[in-house]
Amino acid sequence: MVLTKILKYQMLVVLAFLFADEANAIDLVKIFSKELKTDQADVSLQKFIPECGDDFGTNEFFKLYVKKQWEGYVVLTRAKGRHDYFDFLIWYSSGMSVKLVKVVSYSSDHGSEISGKNWLLQFAGYSGNKLIYGKDIQAISGATISGKAITSKIEEITGKLKTCIGN
To answer: Is residue 22 a part of any domain in this protein?
Structure first.
């Protein structure tokens, strides 16, 4: 009886995980169709797991296709601001330089300025060199912790992914 309840619980956890991944992919399709000014039917994301020894934690990785043509990699990740976590995506070209960073979920009362499209444009073209918040990336008053967190996370993931994929 207890074993049956445990198995049911484990099955629910697995199903929740699978549906969460599907929901994330659907949300990303909406985001990219809007960013690329194309129909949702033209955008597809294929989830993949990088084949290397590095631990990527809870990050989700996708290959992005637009009109069936491969357009690079997308990483859905999160970082911690002063009080709360926020979710953002990084779109990499096939050559592993950043094409787009977009904050997709920011619930904290402070630091939301990092969600601004113009501020995030600073990361476009980034390909793995050292990033210094306040020097390479413009500091934002009232969003110091979130700004440092997103900068650090982009630098970390870019380095690991480039090492793993080999670009």
So the answer is: no
